[in-house]
Amino acid sequence: MSSTLLVSAKKVKSFTEVNENVDEILLLANIQIAQDLGLQGLLGTRFFTHILDGAKNNTLTAPELTLLQDYIQPYLLWRATWEALPTLYMRVMNKSVIVGSTEQGNPVGSKDLNYLRNIHENRFSFYAQRMMDYIQNHPSDYPLYFQYTSTDGMPPSKENYYAGLHIEPGKRRLPKVGTAGGYGFLPSYTDPTDPDYCCYGF
User: Fold this and answer.
1) pLDDT tens track for 42-76
2) How many domains in the chain?
3) CB 91, CB 100: distance < 8 Å
4) What is the reported pTM?
5) 91 pairs with which residues across the strands?
6) What is the rounded CA–CA span in Å between residue 102 and residue 79?
């Protein structure tokens, strides 16, 4: 387990709904879990370790820095928050496990907590799939992702296991405005770097 964290607790607070008063120690532990359990499974151990070492030693290439800032960090923000929610909901104390309350209100029940976690899971799943699409469409920039051997530890993932349904890169889009059952008020998502991408009239 590396002590290098690819996103800060401060950034988690700034870009998610986590309150500024939350103890950073609780977030740091869950950022580590998000990296080890989540990101490592997506990148594979070899490429994951390379990114950690590069971030620690300031040796990332320009494409790797883009991957870190624009794709890895958004994923980790929401994966770490998802991991942290049970810890924020209940604490393991000296003699018991407790659910706390504050001056601002009472804690939610487990059903509401699961509802909130499902929202966060959908968010980090989106960012995971977007990251994987990007890597797979830029093989020359991230060769270690494609050079896995059986001695490298965990293999890189070719699909997002949390998404339930795997959709090929570049074809995630919503119906155009005016189509039957369309969702014209929502933005479509396509990947113009995909070789099969077509503008679809947009």
Assistant:
1) 999 999 999 999 999 999 999 999 999 999 999 99
2) 2
3) yes
4) 0.72
5) 98
6) 25
Regarding whether 101 and 178 lie in a shared domain, the answer is no
Cβ-based neighbours of 156, under 8 Å, separated by 6 or more: 42, 43, 44, 47, 145, 146, 148
CA distances from 17 to 13, 71, 76, 115 (A): 7, 19, 14, 15
Angle at 83 between CA 77 and CA 89, to 5 degrees: 115
Bridge-based pairing state of the strands 90-92 and 97-99? antiparallel
pLDDT, tens digit, 9 for 90 and up, residues 28-47: 999 999 999 999 999 999 99
- Same domain membership, residue 171 and residue 72: no
Do residues 37 and 134 share a domain? Answer: yes
State both tokens at 163. 């998404």
Distance between CA atoms of residues 188 and 176, nearest Å: 8
DSSP state of 161: G
Instruction: Kindly compute the dihedral angle of the four CA atoms of residues 187, 193, 195, 201, in this order, to the nearest 10 degrees.
Output: 30
CA distance 118 to 108: 15
Range of the domain at 184: 167-202
